[in-house]
# Entry
Amino acid sequence: LAGTRRYASTTPAAPKKASNAPLYFIGAGIVGLAGYLYIEKAGNRQPIQEKSPFDPQNFVDFKLKKIVPYNHNTSTFVFEIPKDEASLLPVASCLVVKSSDPEALKDAKGKPIIRPYTPVSSPTKRGEFSLLVKKYENGNASKYIHELKARFPSYSNKFGL
# Structure
């Protein structure tokens, strides 16, 4: 520096400082990892359900949990699924419904009346599924479902998937 000439209007160049960006990225990564691990451990983890409680080959009985009126001739029927399982029925699937009492719902020829209904509840909702059913004056199945109190209709998703 002995031979360097300086002017009063210039300032000497400051030595370059190292950037703090890597420290910020490492800190953010640690915070993100800690948050992820906390959520994974703290969450109420239930085993993944692989199979629907509906049997495509056989009818299964479900208990009527409650009836929620929708309008003057339509109600939502909420049925209980045992073991707190989800229905796992995809959107636009249908349930084939018949009476669990073989004598309760028959046509003029004595054959059981079987009708398809579309569930309106989420496929992942645990413990219940819902059907929205309109009551028709000439509809034997819809009248039977609307007269349910604590009886069990039988369901199958034979034609649903």
